[in-house]
Structure formats: structure tokens, C-alpha cells
Design brief:
The radius of gyration is 27 Å and the shape is globular. The chain has three domains: 214 residues, Beta-lactamase (3-Layer(aba) Sandwich); 103 residues, no CATH class; 83 residues, no CATH class. The protein starts with a helix and ends with a helix. The longest helix has 44 residues. It has 13 helices and 16 strands. The strands form four sheets. A five-stranded antiparallel beta sheet has the order 2-1-16-15-14, sandwiched between helices.
Length: 475
């Protein structure tokens, strides 16, 4: 009898302890949420810089699988370059340890090349170029087919009048030199005369009348009207690789401008003119009675690996490289679907890896240049949490910038090594999402999306910084 009584007492004590613990956790969670709500109101929502803005904030604790704070976390926002977060996830999962820079197929005495969209080919950051070395050392006839390309040079919703800006590079199946031309002034001017150099050199030969056509000066030289320093910049004709000068408020030293790309008419011509490599278009130059399924990776079973995948993802996230992001998503498409098409790969990812997103987003490109993109803060948190669960923070820390680095080089300097995130900026749009370690060692995931502000982006970022630093110091 006494044993039964003691047993009942033990059960009651155990239940009391459980319920007491639950209440402590519940009230502690409520207390944290109230403090976060107060901090968000003081530092963000009541800030004058946010008065005309739409704001979404989500702070999530992965250890308890609970949101500590949500302010319009389920509402849709234009995320700008926070779109690189799902792009980065897809690349981390599907592109392996190193990028496939080229696939090829052996046929008779020829090699049929299948480009993969690799953005690192002859990109200045990567001195080791295994694809170029392979092409230079190959003695057999080289042919290329781009049947696996099924997309446009620009993403859906991109601003057409940004075509001359370095951040809106055209996409294609076989990028070269980052699909930009570097135009530089060489040496000091003499009596107002400037030498201009094009890299790649192919585009210089295409612009032999560059200065004559517009300024009546010798080929590839600029004669400014007087001997004062020339204040000008370079623009490209919208629909052709012809460049001209326009007056500016600043002196030109060098400028990077996207050139019009076409794998057959641009990439192959540059390889021929600059490197002496003759690669023919398969459809026009290879006579065969049999057809080839160019979407079959089983057929193109030979491959050349180019660069470590994370060596591309790091600059993509640190400097918010739109070109890398677009090409990496297209590379994922090529690996998964056998074709480069962002619409199809996005649809596939939303139906598979991202099928459980809290709110179904509208996702249209790999970089976030488009204002058609719509994500919620909770969507971004979900993807970051998934990234952590599948790849781990050690790898993430190597890819995302921390305080004082990359696009947050002027922010979170006192929290360097404790915060890792991705910024996003368009006119009227500021976003910042990532991971935060509190001073107590707790890992939190956050997303802050701000749309339709009409103030300085710096003011917005400083207010968000103060809010997030408060979380780090208090929790």
C-alpha cells in the first residue's frame, strides 16, 4: 500500500516538474518575444526612416523550432539579392565539390563540346583554367553544340536601361571573361590624346573606328576638345558591341561594361581571335547521318572540372555577384534537367526542395535583379534553416560574409564572427537575412525585408544593425 502511495507521489512530482518546466519555457519565450517586439518598435518601426516603408521581420530559434518574433513575417516582399540565398542552397546541393566546366563527347576524329554555363571560364579571379588548357592541348577537331541552352540573355523583369551597367551581365551557355569588356586608359594623356585598351582584345578589333566615328580622332585614340583632363565614360550601343564616349563628372581610368553575348558569334570568335582556337558550330560544320541527344548527360560522359564550387559561391555572396548567381542557377538547371532554363529549374526546386516553404513565393531569377520576385521573411528563414541542417555552419561561414566583410564591410564590425548574412539592395528595397550567434552562444536565424522606403539605404541598414546587435547582446 505504501509502495503504491509513494509511486503516485513520485508521478505527481514528476508531472509537476514537467509542467513547471513547460511554464518556465513558455513564459521565458513570451518574455523574449515581448522584449524583441519592444526593441523592434524602438529601433525600426518607430524610426523615421521606416515611416513610409513596408517592413517584415522574422527571428527564429532552430533549437526550439520556434519563432521568437514575427512582424509581418508571412507577408510578401521584393527581396532583392536575398534571392541569392535559395540560389546558393541549390548550388551547394547540386553542383558538387567542383564545377563541371565542360562536358564532351568523342565522335570519330572529333570532339563534340557541350558547355555547362560555368561563369569562371577566363574570369580574372581564376588563374588556373583547366578548360582552356584542355582546348589548347587537344589536337582533334573541336565542335560545339548549344542545344542545352533554352533561355534569354536577360532575366524576367530586369530593367532594360541598365544594360550598360557592370551588375547586369548577359547570360549564356558558354560565358567568357565574365561576359564583360574592360575598357581602360593606357598611359598619360599627351595634349589631350588618350590611348584606350579593350580586354578582351577581340572587342578592340571590332571597334577600330571607336573614336573616329564619334570624335574624329585616330583609331583607338581619343582626342578631347582641349588639353584639360578628359571627363567621360564609355557606353555601349544597346543592340551591338559598338562603344562610344559621353561626357561625365568624373575621370575615366577603367570601366567594365557587359557585352552582347552569343556562344557561337561571340565566345567562339574571342577564342579564335585571342587564343587561336578553332571551334566550329556542330550543326553547320559537322556532317553526320546520325542524330545526337544533346540533353543526355550519359552521352557526354567526359567532363572537365574547373573550380571548387565554394570558391564561386563565396564571391557570389560576399560581393553579391549577379552574374555568378545567374550562371550558377543555370548550371544547376543543366545538371538536374539537362537544359539551362531558370523558369524550369525554379519550378522544379519549388516542387521538391522548397515544397514545404511557409508561403509559396514568386521566384523568377537567380540574382534578385528582378522586382517580380516575392518572398516572405519566413520563406527566407526556412531556406537558411534548411541550409544549416543539410550543410552545417562550418561550410556556411566560409560562404557568407561576416561583419566587416563584403557587402557588410561597414557594418557589424563589433560582431565579426558572430553574424553571417546576405544583403539585398534595389531602389526602395533593403534586405538582410542570415545567422546570428548571441553572446550566450545561441544560434538564431533572422530575415529583415524592407520595401518602399524613401530614405537613405544607409539609415535603414544602421537601424537594422542596432536591432540585431541588441538581440545578440541580450539573448
Amino acid at each position: 500500500m505504501n509502495d503504491k502511495k509513494h509511486s503516485r507521489n513520485d508521478c505527481r512530482q514528476f508531472l509537476f516538474i514537467i509542467l513547471h518546466s513547460v511554464f518556465i519555457i513558455f513564459f521565458a519565450s513570451c518574455s523574449v518575444s515581448k522584449k524583441l517586439s519592444k526593441s523592434a518598435k524602438e529601433n525600426v518601426l518607430s524610426n523615421k526612416a521606416f515611416q513610409t516603408a513596408h517592413v517584415g521581420i522574422s527571428v527564429y530559434d532552430p533549437a526550439t523550432n520556434k519563432y521568437l518574433y514575427n512582424y509581418q513575417g508571412d507577408k510578401y516582399f521584393v527581396p532583392a539579392s536575398n534571392i541569392k540565398i535559395p540560389t546558393c542552397y541549390a548550388a551547394m546541393k547540386y553542383l558538387g565539390d567542383s564545377l563541371v566546366g565542360l562536358r564532351y563527347y568523342l565522335k570519330d576524329d572529333s570532339i563534340i563540346l557541350l558547355p555547362t554555363g560555368d561563369p569562371t571560364f577566363l574570369f580574372s579571379d581564376y588563374k588556373y583554367q583547366p578548360v582552356l588548357n584542355f582546348l589548347k592541348n587537344e589536337k582533334r577537331k573541336l565542335f560545339i553544340d548549344i542545344e542545352n541552352w533554352d533561355d534569354d540573355e536577360f532575366g524576367s523583369g530586369w530593367s532594360w536601361n541598365d544594360y550598360n551597367e557592370y551588375y547586369m551581365v548577359e547570360r549564356n551557355s558558354f560565358p567568357i571573361f565574365g561576359n564583360v569588356v574592360k575598357i581602360s586608359l593606357i598611359g598619360r594623356p599627351v595634349r589631350g590624346k588618350y590611348n584606350i585598351k579593350f580586354e578582351p582584345a577581340f572587342l578592340e578589333t571590332q571597334n577600330e573606328n571607336f573614336a573616329i566615328r564619334l570624335i574624329n580622332s585616330p583609331s583607338r585614340h581619343v582626342i578631347w576638345p582641349d588639353s584639360t583632363p578628359a571627363k567621360f565614360n564609355v557606353r555601349r550601343q544597346k543592340l551591338e558591341n559598338q562603344f562610344y564616349l559621353e561626357e561625365s563628372n568624373s575621370l575615366l581610368s577603367s570601366q567594365q561594361i557587359p557585352f552582347i553575348v552569343d556562344t557561337v558569334s561571340t565566345t567562339l570568335k574571342i577564342l579564335k581571335e585571342d587564343f587561336g582556337l578553332l571551334i566550329s558550330n556542330y550543326k553547320k560544320g559537322f556532317q553526320t547521318g546520325s542524330s545526337i541527344d544533346f540533353n543526355s548527360h550519359d552521352l557526354f560522359n567526359y567532363k572537365i572540372h574547373s573550380q571548387p564550387t565554394d570558391s564561386v559561391l563565396k564571391p557570389m555572396m560576399h560581393r553579391s555577384d549577379n552574374f555568378f548567381a545567374e550562371q550558377m542557377l543555370l548550371m544547376v538547371s543543366n545538371e538536374m534537367l539537362g537544359v539551362m532554363n531558370d523558369e524550369r529549374i525554379i519550378d522544379t526546386l519549388l516542387k521538391t526542395d522548397f515544397k514545404d516553404l511557409p508561403q509559396r513565393p514568386r521566384w523568377v531569377d537567380g540574382s534578385g535583379l528582378s522586382r517580380y520576385n516575392l518572398f516572405t521573411p519566413q520563406d527566407i528563414v526556412f531556406i537558411l534553416n534548411k541550409m544549416n541542417n543539410e550543410f552545417g555552419m562550418d561550410r556556411i561561414k566560409e560562404i557568407l560574409p561576416t561583419g566587416g566583410e563584403g557587402t557588410i564591410s561597414n557594418y557589424y564590425k563589433t560582431d565579426s564572427g558572430y553574424i553571417y548574412g546576405k544583403t539585398g539592395t534595389l531602389s526602395g528595397v533593403v534586405s538582410f537575412s542570415g545567422f546570428l550567434y548571441t553572446k550566450k552562444g545561441k544560434l538564431l536565424i533572422f530575415s529583415t525585408l524592407v520595401n518602399n522606403h524613401n530614405n537613405s539605404a544607409t539609415e535603414i541598414r544602421k537601424a537594422i544593425e542596432k536591432f540585431l546587435q541588441g538581440i545578440r547582446n541580450r539573448y
